[in-house]
Amino acid sequence: MVASSQACQSRAHFASKEALVFEQDDDFEERLTLAVTGRAPHESLIPALRREIQALVRHCAAEGAAPIWRMIDESPALREYEESMRLRHAESLATALAADPGLSQTTTACRTIARFVIDAYSLAREAADPAAAVDEIFRMIEAAWEVASPSRRA
What we know:
By secondary structure, the chain is an all-alpha fold. It is about 70% helix and about 0% strand.
């Protein structure tokens, strides 16, 4: 989901031109998973994810990234590739959430929150005020996570 600002790299290293544009795809996925698995034992999940999404949005909304996103938006192949990455990232994040013994959420709750987090990145990146958008979206994500908590289902 993180587009490359280094388009001059050799294509021989990448599986496709789409992979060249999204060269930091694996890093994005790893950072989200680490926000879950690498957080301190006392650290709440949603703030950890908010912090990571905020950092990723800052990177992708930085000056100079607009031409890359315009290229992606104008290319059906790149938009399709980005959508497949988003689904893969959401599944990886959902797997990390479900594997965390301290969270004890259903698979459905984990998959739903993971999709919300991935969508938060895209929505905030496109917003006029990305930081405010992340905060607004994560208030909703936090409320959804709370509603899905085991104590609320009992």
